Amino acid sequence: MPAPDRRSATVATIDLTALAHNLSEVRRLIPSACRIFAVVKADAYGHGLIEVSRVLARHNVGGFAVATVQEAVLLRNAGIREPVLVMAGLLPEELPDLVRYGLTPVVYDLAFVQRLAEQIPVDAAPWPVHLKLDTGMGRLGLTPAEAWEALQRIRAGGHLRVEGLMTHLADADSADPAYTNSQLARLDTMVARIREADISIPLIHAAGTAGILSHPASHRDAVRPGIMLYGYHTCARLTTPVFLKPVLCVTTKVVQVRTVAQGESVSYNRTFIATRPSRIAVLPVGYADGYSRTLSDRAAVLVRDRRAPVVGRVCMDLTMIDVSDVPGAAAGDEVVLIGRQGSESITADDLATWQDSIPYDVLCAIGPRVPRIFRPDETARN
Ligand SMILES: Cc1ncc(COP(=O)(O)O)c(C=O)c1O
Fold first, then answer.
1. Which atom of ligand 1 is nearest the CA belonging to 228?
2. Could you report the per-residue pLDDT of 43-95, keeping only the tens digit for each?
3. Is there a single domain that holds both residue 75 and residue 177?
4. Which atom of ligand 1 is nearest to the CA of 41?
5. Which of 72, 155, 259, 285 fits a disulfide with 84 by CB distance 3.0 to 4.6 angstroms?
6. Is 208 in the pocket of ligand 1 (CB under 6 A)?
């Protein structure tokens, strides 16, 4: 693991024990034979691809799922040996790396079947692929007719083998299960047709976090948890209570405290005008670090165990908070942007609410300028 960068005022601390706990919650909720493909795309949702994946591998996940070949290659170069599903856009020029690094592509395009088959060395065993069926996400995926055609071509070709059939649920976190049920019914129709033809596909999968937490019927041979591993979910309805621990905290330090007279303004466009003589603390963090500009005049932070509001526009590298009601606030004070301090806490859900978004967006946005400091996985010591 990289040495913690103590020179940076703003750091993200990643609690790998909490990550291991959240994985154990996934296991508690799914059948024991169900395989877990841990979703670690987008730098493990901003938490650090390699460190997160090593912990999950140590806890015996059945594989990983990423968006791009580049992410998968990083995993392989870090010594991760588990199967790696590449789920999003694959360019023809990336196919040689797919084979070279032993990656498992998700097939969402019929033309891809032939292109991939041409890359497989003649003496290689049939290459595993997962077919992606669009059952209603309206994003990537094969129609049922295309999926059937892909299956026939793959069986006839002999270079590839269909290890998995997957779909992605569009509305599994909503209170109304109707759309998810209709997607699962479409998946079932396809599965029934495949079984009637006596074709075996070992891994049927549909569920991400929302499927795992709200739709037990979507737990098939495998699941693909992402956000719940990092301690969050967006489900309006849970079938079983779940106890998730946020894995990431972001802290920074006050660099200066200024006195602002009543009537004076703070930051660009003067959206904050002091209604009283105020003490304004300047934080060395901004939208370049992923602290969204939409948090301007809306968010709060924690300093000296109290909440302090963000005032004025969040800038690229600086954010101002009003510490008039925080006695003694001074340069050098630690400030929590996401995490706990005293009895108070601010979560990625809170930021998501303030910036009218979702915790995924908040977590993935935390930029490369913010060093990640890893707290070791204590569960691995036993
Ligand atoms: C195809 C696919 N499966 C699984 C996931 C994981 O979803 P979640 O983070 O909601 O668990 C994603 C994430 O966007 C995805 O695109």
1. 11
2. 999 999 999 999 999 999 999 999 999 999 999 999 999 999 999 988 889 99
3. yes
4. 13
5. 72
6. yes
- Ligand 1 nearest atom to the CA of residue 132, by list position: 1
Whole-number pLDDT of residue 2:
47
pLDDT value of position 380: 79
pTM for the whole structure: 0.96
- The candidate with the shortest Cα–Cα distance to 104, out of 116, 121, 122, is 116
Residues 199 and 120 in one domain: yes
Tokens for 58? 């140590």
- Write out the two tokens for 97: 């790396």
CB atoms within 10 A of CB 97: 17
**CB of 205 sitting under 6 A from ligand 1:** no
Q: Are residues 223 and 254 in the same domain?
A: no
Structural domain count, the chain: 2
Task: Check pocket membership of 225 for ligand 1, CB cut-off 6 A.
Answer: yes
Q: What is the DSSP string of 262-322?
A: TT-EESGGG-EE-SS-EEEEEES--GGGT--GGGTTT-EEEETTEEEEB-S---SS-EEEE
Take atom 9 of ligand 1 and give the residue whose Cα is closest.
Answer: 226
Q: Which residues are catalytic?
A: 41, 268
- Containing domain of residue 281, as a range? 248-375
Domain for residue 71, yes or no? yes
Compute the distance from residue 161 Cα to the ligand 1 centre, in Å. Answer: 24
**Ligand 1 closest atom vs CA 229:** 11
CATH number at residue 130: 3.20.20.10
**Cβ contacts of residue 212 below 8 Å, gap of 6+?**
26, 29, 30, 218, 219, 223, 225, 228
In this structure, the residue with its CA closest to atom 1 of ligand 1 is: 168
> Tens digit of pLDDT for each residue in 205-250?
999 999 999 999 999 999 999 999 999 999 999 999 999 999 999 9
Spatial distance between the Cα atoms of 310 and 322, rounded to a whole number of angstroms: 7
Longest CA–CA span in the chain (Å) reads 79
Mutation probe of ligand 1 site: the residue of 39, 167, 174, 235 with most atoms within 8 A of C-beta: 39
